[in-house]
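User: My collaborator and I are trying to settle a disagreement about how two of our proteins should look. Neither of us wants to argue from intuition anymore, so we agreed to look at predicted structures for both before our next call. Could you fold the first one, then the second, and keep them clearly separated?

Assistant: That sounds like a sensible way to settle it. I'll keep them separate. The first protein:
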Amino acid sequence: MAELVAKHILGIVLCRSLFQLINTPENILDDAVLYSVITFAGTAAAAAYNYESGVLQAFGNSVIPLVFLVITSLLNVGLDLLFVLSFGWGVLGVAVATVLSQLISALLCLGYMVRKVLQMKLTRADWKWSGAMAKQHLKTGIPMAFFSSLLAVSFLLLQAALNSLGSEDVAAYPTCKIPGSTRPSFPIVLHCGGNAIARAPGKTRKARLAFSTAACYYHKSPTRGENPMAETSKLSTEELLRLLFMESSLEHLMNSDRSSLTLPGFAEYITALCAQRNEAPEQVIRRADLEKSYGHQLFSGRRHPSRDTVLRLAFGFEMDYEQTQELLKVARKSRLHPKVKRDMVLIYCLYHGSSLVRCQNALLEFGLPVLGEGKSYE
């Protein structure tokens, strides 16, 4: 709590100096300071929502935080329009709308947790200080905080370069700052457009132009003459699904480039992995504890591996959990699932970088079949 209060005070006191440091144009400096002071004062609401959302997700409930976030995002848009267009509050209205929406989302999550999450019914014993738990939190939190700080500094450098272009470009920038998505959602476009109009008093023509451009960008979809599957071999599964949902003609989609619609051959994939890692197949085969001639038949494509053999190769490649899941996908084998007891042991060993021998010993310890037991070379 003391850290949060200190951050608020420092943010408010140093706000103007920090904006001047990153070359904020003089004609919007006062508005930028006003917006930041109000949002700094409301940081506790955002922090509370993030904490509550994290707790609910830890209990396996990711739907309720998302529902509350969608509700308050729509509320934020409505309050932006009300405060800026109806009340004429400008930047003040945008800041107040943001803080109010964050506060409401935090209160909604808190109310749900108190009523529905039994573990949130705290007793006096729950408030007892635990040095070991604090140490564990710090061990996890400090690297994450450091990584977030690196991102924040990089965005500040980008913003400093953008600020030198003038206030119109600064106002239009949030419209395009939609991380993780090719097309912004319409509520976010409305919100960013409202911010652009509010942040450029007396110069709303260019801000409205940016707003309109964003709205047109949102509605733009591939035309009949365009190939939405171009360069699809470089796209992830999620991106391919997005293209599939955008395409109005299944025939057009199926007749387009199919290189991304098929997985590479298993032998081709593991051979490429060896080349990429600059190691010989013999090294992988030895670590996977496979018979040498059988291992070379796998690399040449003359034999097809069982699921257990694929997993042994994953240990041979010293893969982590995500890489192992990808290897299973390429081999057309079922992926590891944490609800399966044997898979749970395998996931744990992969995550902690255990060798094949240590993993086999762990399986034996829990009375589970070792990898390759009775069906290594099918």
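The second protein, kept apart from the first:
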Amino acid sequence: MHLNIVKSWNKSVVILVLLFASLSSKATVSVFSDDAKYSPRIELSAKAGKYRHIVRPGFVLPIYQKKDFLIHTTVIGMADTKKAIEGNVGLGFRSLIDRNIVGGFAFYDIRKTSRNNLIHQLTLGAE
């Protein structure tokens, strides 16, 4: 049975990789003016391991930006072959002040473990 799960999971990974590859060419089109520094970015990572395989799709979307200021949102997902699933949603800002980057962020994480536990977490940070 484990082999069947891995085979179907590998098909899902291939489908996700192809989907994100097709979207990534469109994701480089900026929704801001021509002088915008930051454009949306789609990311996809996958890891094959001895005991489980992991796929992590995500994206970063600038919401508002000026010359020295940026507000962005980040959404990341994770799934593995042990039936764990996770989602992360964050909002952050960065500002350039006297050649120094100052910023902050807030993330909400939710994870369902392979043992069916549900974990919620809130993270606040500054940089």
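Some points you might bring to the call about the second protein. The CA atoms of residues 52 and 85 lie 13 Å apart. The beta strands are 41-48, 53-66, 69-80, 85-97, 100-112, 118-126.
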